[in-house]
Amino acid sequence: MTTPLRSARRLSSGHSPRREAVPLSRFVVPGKPPPLDNAESSHGSGPRGSAGDRMESAPFTTLEEAAISAAEARLGFTFGAKDLLRRALTHRSYAYERGIDHNERLELLGDAVIGLVVTEDIFMRFDGMGEGELTQLKSYLVSRALQARAAKKLGLEGCLLVGVSEEKTGIKARVSTLANLFEALVGALYLDAGLEQCAMFLRGAILAHAGAPAAFDLKDPKTALQELVQGKEPIQPQYHLVTVDGPDHNPVFTVDVSVGGNTLARGTGNSKKEAERDAARHALIRLAALPDDQPEAAEPAR
Questions:
Q1: Helices (H) and strands (E) in the chain, counts
Q2: Alpha-carbon span 192 to 186, nearest angstrom
C-alpha cells in the first residue's frame, strides 16, 4: 500500500525583487491541508449563513453533542474542531431551524479528497490496468451508491442532524442523503487531520472494495452482465440504439442497456457492438455499487 500523499517539490530559492514574499505558512505541508481562512476555521468567527453573513458559533445542544460523540465513535477518530464535525453532520433542513451552517460546502471538498485518494491508490496498485479499466474502477469506487453503503455500514445515518419537518420523510435512508453525509465527513476529516488520515479512513470504508469489479470479466462485459442478471431473474439484458452521431467514416454510437424495463446504463463506441459492450461495462459497475437493500435504486441513464 502506498502513502497517498507524496512529498511536495521544494520551491526554488530564487525570487524576484518585484514580488512580495509569500509567507511559508501558506504553502501546503505534505499530509496536512492548507491554512484555513477564518470563515472555514473553527478558531475563526464561525460559519457563514445562507446569505453570506458571518454567524457566531452557536453553542451545542444536547442532540448535537450526542450526534458528535456517536459519529466519532463510529469513525474511530476524535475531532479537534467539534464545530467542523457538527457542520458535517448538519443537513440543510436542520441548519435553517437552528441558524447554523449546513454541510454542503464540505460535500464538495470531500468529493475531491475521495477522488484523489482513490485515484492514486488504484493507479499504484493496479499497474497492469490501462486507462479505460482504471477509469471504470474509479467510477465504481467513488460512486455515490458505494458511499451510501459505507455510511450505512458505519451507522452514520443515526448521527445526521435533520429538521423536524424532515424527520418522518425517511430522508436519512436515501442514497443521496447518505452519500452527501459521507462526503461531508471526509471533507471535515481532511480539514481537521489532513490527507493521510483521510486515506487511512477510506482504505477501510471504500478501497477495501477495490477488488469487487474483478469478479466481472470487463473484457467480455455483455456475457458477464447476462450471467449476473440471469443468476437472479430469468430475463435478458436489452440493448437499445439511442443515436448515431458523427461523420460516416467515424461514427459514434450511443446505446442504452436495460433489464426488466429499467435502464441501467448508457455506453458509446465507434460501432454498435462496441457501444453495447461499453453500456454493459457501466451496468456491471453500477450494479456492484448498489446497496444490498436497494436493488432498484438505479436512476435512468442521463
A1: 10, 3
A2: 10
Query: Cα–Cα distance between 285 and 264 in angstroms, integer?
Result: 10
Is the separation of the CB atoms in 67 and 185 below 8 Å?
A: no
Query: What CATH number is associated with residue 113?
Result: 1.10.1520.10
From the list 40, 83, 107, 183, the catalytic residue is 183
Out of 111, 121, 192, 276, the active site residue is 111
**Strand pairing report for 262-269 and 252-259:** antiparallel
pLDDT per residue as tens digits for the range 194-243: 999 999 999 989 887 665 554 444 567 888 888 888 877 788 999 999 99
Residue ranges of the chain with per-residue pLDDT less than 70: 1-57, 209-219, 288-302
Residues in the chain, how many?
Answer: 302
Residues 6+ apart with CB under 8 A from 129: 122, 137
DSSP label at residue 266: E
Residue 91: count of CB within 10 angstroms of its CB: 22
How much is the pLDDT for 127? 82
Within a 10 A sphere around the Cβ of 189, how many other Cβ atoms?
Answer: 25
Q: 216 CB contacts (<8 Å, ≥6 apart)?
A: 224, 225, 228, 284, 285, 288
pLDDT at 163: 93
245 - beta bridge partners? 252
Range of the domain at 31: 24-212
Residue 122, H or E segment: helix 104-125
Catalytic, 101? Answer no
Same domain, yes or no: 248 and 161: no
Question: What's the domain count of the chain?
Answer: 2
Query: CA 178 to CA 176: how far, in whole Å?
Result: 6
Grid cell for residue 38: 477564518
Residue whose cell numbers read 457566531: 56
Question: For residues 262 and 229, what is the distance between their CA atoms, to the nearest angstrom?
Answer: 12
User: What is the pTM assigned to this prediction?
Assistant: 0.62
183 has catalytic annotation: yes
| Residues 172 and 281 both lie in one domain | no
